[in-house]
Write a structure and sequence with these properties.
179 residues, mainly alpha, Four Helix Bundle (Hemerythrin (Met), subunit A), 8 helices, DUF1706, DinB superfamily protein, DinB/YfiT-like
């Protein structure tokens, strides 16, 4: 399954990846879902998220907060108010600090609340995507505020790609707790 190039493919893959992510939780007890990750991070991948995210709740919060970024960016700009995707003072060189801030902000959020938050924000993102047309999503430069890429590219990164990333973490956790 390649990167979506149409609205239909984006919607299909976003729902599919999201559902598969939750399928990873099937058969896990409440304790397993809330347990700290105990798997080793891949030696070939030194990304900060391997040490930042300590459990599934942290992954859900990360997804939820990135949904919020997309929702706010789209709604603000579609209403003819200028907004960058990443809120100041963050930029694409410092977004790791923003991710850390999200993590810190939600350390008192319960697993159940985080799960509901990601489900709700996913549905809100999908509602916005469904209401955009093919050109709005995939024509580069259709909106000047999307820069050199398309709105769809941001949507893919925030949904399909992020859900695939989350599934990878959950798969490792699942393997660890069920072994």
């Amino acid at each position: 399954m390649g990167r979506p190039k149409t609205k239909e493919a984006l919607i299909e893959q976003a729902y599919q990846q999201f559902n598969q992510m939750f399928d990873m939780l099937e058969g896990l007890s409440s304790e397993d879902k809330m347990a700290a990750f105990s798997f080793d991070k891949p030696k070939s991948d030194q990304a900060a998220h391997w040490t930042r995210d300590k459990n599934i709740r942290d992954v859900f919060i990360h997804l939820h907060e990135w949904h919020q970024l997309l929702i706010n960016w789209l709604i603000t700009n579609l209403n003819n108010q200028s907004s960058t995707f990443l809120p100041p003072p963050y930029n694409w060189r410092t977004y790791g600090d923003m991710n850390r801030m999200f993590w810190e902000k939600h350390q008192r959020t319960s697993y159940d609340d985080a799960e509901q938050m990601v489900k709700d924000s996913h549905m809100e993102v999908m509602s916005i995507i469904i209401n955009l047309d093919e050109k709005e999503l995939f024509e580069k430069g259709y909106y000047d505020w999307s820069g050199k890429t398309s709105v769809g590219s941001y949507c893919i990164s925030t949904t399909c790609s992020h859900y695939k990333w989350a599934k990878n973490k959950m798969k490792r956790h699942r393997k660890q707790v069920l072994s």
